[in-house]
Amino acid sequence: MRKIFVSMLSSMLVAGPALAAQPDLTNAAAFENTCTAAAARAPVTVQERQAYVICNDIALVQQTRTFIEQGLRRIDREMPSEAAVALAVRQQLTYMRAQLRKSRSMLEKIRITSASEGLLIAPSTWVRDLDGDGKIAISERYFFALPARNDGDLTVGMPSEDEDYYASEYNLNATIRLDQTDILWGLSYHYYAEALVEVLLSYQLDRNTNKPDQAIRLAHPENMRQAQALIVAGLKTSEKMRLSALAETDDDLEWLGNPRQASTVFPVPLDDADFNVWGELMGHLIPLFQGKTLLPAAQRMSGPLGSMGSLCPAGKGFSLQWFFQHPPKYPLEFFNRSDTALYCRKLDAARPASGLFDFIARYGEAMEGNGRAAMRFLRRLIWVN
């Protein structure tokens, strides 16, 4: 009798994950049930891992938005000290890093080897009270909905509270069957987001100085080093994703589709030229952040990268690797200090000049006078990360 009981118990334990309700993110009720279950138990199956990441990320978005909205109201109401605000922000960033790391670690474990393992999702059905006011605003109802697929310009503005806007500008019926390319897409974004938080945690406000350029000082250089590793991992994953997308031959409810896949709801259409530009850009960025190439001085190049390149004399280039490994103590005064030369390295065969500036200049010239083409390029860059 005892053997029979042990055998039955063992069978139940083995079958437990299979008997549990399968994740379902295709309607509002199932979304709530799936995310409640995802928070209560460790994921076992491939689909459960996908659901865990989505639910964890949505919970983080909700918690962060609530923190911001309630924090602003508290500042207006209580007028807390600068130190109290800085501490609260740092605690929030630390929490965000922990949650992003959980999702990223889970994404690294996911291997979708067949269509049946890919989770079916309908993002427009995911609804949350994001700001914690107890109500669902129209912009919250459609926060996770996907913009309609079009070749339009990049537009930036406040979230709309007009139902008709979402009906006309969004694909409210978008359904996706996740595959390994999509996992890589999400993973690369998580690397970048976690890297950004690491950079922010590297520095803190210095309230003991009367010099504005020293109001922010380096406190945790190890976070900058971790940020570099995450950025490199994100860039490598982006290139792996590009190759994975191009290699796909199926055409089943795609997210990021290649030019030969018609069944895709990706907000921007991508042609072969876009994939080639994407690959060329990764070919410049990966060795640059690894320290294998250097930023040379560049004329007509603006922005932080152009400023970094201009810090070095002829024959030398700026090392982004050295910048992350030995970050500046006071970033606000970085471009006005003489010791920036410490980041300059000799250009030679071992560490040649990066071709990034030439790449940007070439495409800039092609788009000169065509603002729409430039915004089209930027929109694609953002969506494919």
TrEMBL record:
The keyword Signal applies. The keyword Signal applies. Residues 1-20 form the signal peptide. Keywords: Signal. This is Uncharacterized protein. It comes from Pseudoduganella umbonata. The lineage of its organism: Bacteria, Pseudomonadati, Pseudomonadota, Betaproteobacteria, Burkholderiales.
